[in-house]
Amino acid sequence: MNKTAPTDIYNTHFGFSERPFTLLPDPEFLFWSRDHRLAFTMLEYGMMTRAPITVITGEVGAGKTTLLQYMLRTLGEEADIGLISNAQGGRGELLQWVLHAFSVQFDPNFSYVQLFQQLQEHMLDVYARGRRMVLIIDEAQNLTPETVEELRMLTNINSNKDELLQLVLVGQPEFRDMIRQPGLRQFLQRVGASFHLGPMSPQTVAEYVAHRLGVAGGTGAEIDPAAIPLIHEVTGGVPRLVNQICDLALVYAFSADQPAVTEQTVRSVLDDGVYLGGFASERNPTQ
């Protein structure tokens, strides 16, 4: 087996400047599939038109957080951004989350009315300074219908005809199901832009893999195109799962001193049970 520094993994072997398939969201590796381009367009549209609410949904690992991070880079300095990654709790707790997100100091013993009043005063102050507020909530599927309705109420705070707060909610498919409930029809009516990120097709997986290999300094040939159908089958086209199995396959190819990942390399990863992605457990693609 080749010897290498622990932080290098297989990079020197393949000529990479960095690992191409890490599991952490990285806007530098963002691949503009048709769906990702449309999702980002809807995010931009929501921002440009100052839509009260923008909703983006998709499966776990579909690339929603990476899109969010990329969007944050494009927002101008005129916006105050509040980011909540995993809000939970009731109405009063939600207001505390929002105040924290915008770095507003408050007394934790305040009543709901006092918290609401403090947030409203802050929103009016931001507006008076010619700025706007954008509240981004990631993992929105963890909200309750009651807190979703409370968020809608926050978008009712306005000055003349101007919205003081824009909401961007990003979550898993169950969030889309939640907001379609009859009790949340007023919330749904305030959604000005939305998109659902679906899984990638086999062709898109091939383009995605080649893209990430290239960004990392590779040629794109480090994973044989013949291995792509199997990669797509066992990952269902979910980007994070594609990253997971490709990373493991590159480790296997490096360990065997192979110049590229082949279909057999991927099968070896599956046979050894080191890939724990959800789709691999539903079928055995090596049989």
TrEMBL record:
GO terms for molecular function: ATP hydrolysis activity. SUPFAM superfamilies: P-loop containing nucleoside triphosphate hydrolases (SSF52540). Residues 50-195 form the AAA+ ATPase domain. InterPro entries: AAA+_ATPase (IPR003593), AAA_22 (IPR049945), ExeA_AAA_ATPase_DNA-bind (IPR052026), P-loop_NTPase (IPR027417). Pfam families: AAA_22 (PF13401). It comes from the Bacteria. Coiled coil: none annotated. This is AAA family ATPase.
